Amino acid sequence: MERITFNQIPKGMIEKLMSIENYIKESTLDLQLLELMRLRVAQINKCAYCIDMHYKELKHTGETELRMSTLSVWKETSFFTEKENTVLQFTELLTDTSAEISDEVFDSLTKFFDRDEICNLTLAISQLNTWTKLVRTFKFTAGNYEVK
């Protein structure tokens, strides 16, 4: 049972969070890559609602079932590009608040992204971690999300 429904969240709070979402959407980051990262964060944080949402959003971008079903074990597959592997590694480290982002990991990002994109990627990962913490705390019901 939901503790707090989406409609019960203070309007100012949702507006501020959505302004960050809009900023990220307007960035140069690829939507499919963002959704891949978002689904991975949702998996790590064990957020059923978020997994449902980002699985559906990722599928909507044209992502394959094989890649979505093996995302949680991406290191053991050859289905992801070097760029995606780099983003997934960064995503996992940034989601684990006790992990350190080494110079090696950061430098690997610079092969694929400029400074602004690295900032936006970091914000996107942090933003999704915020969403997953809110959604898990409020206990949103999984399964009802519809892609718009």
Automatic annotation (TrEMBL):
<feature type="domain" description="Carboxymuconolactone decarboxylase-like">
    <location>
        <begin position="22"/>
        <end position="92"/>
    </location>
</feature>
<dbReference type="InterPro" id="IPR029032">
    <property type="entry name" value="AhpD-like"/>
</dbReference>
<dbReference type="InterPro" id="IPR003779">
    <property type="entry name" value="CMD-like"/>
</dbReference>
<protein>
    <submittedName>
        <fullName>Carboxymuconolactone decarboxylase family protein</fullName>
    </submittedName>
</protein>
<dbReference type="Pfam" id="PF02627">
    <property type="entry name" value="CMD"/>
</dbReference>
<dbReference type="InterPro" id="IPR004675">
    <property type="entry name" value="AhpD_core"/>
</dbReference>
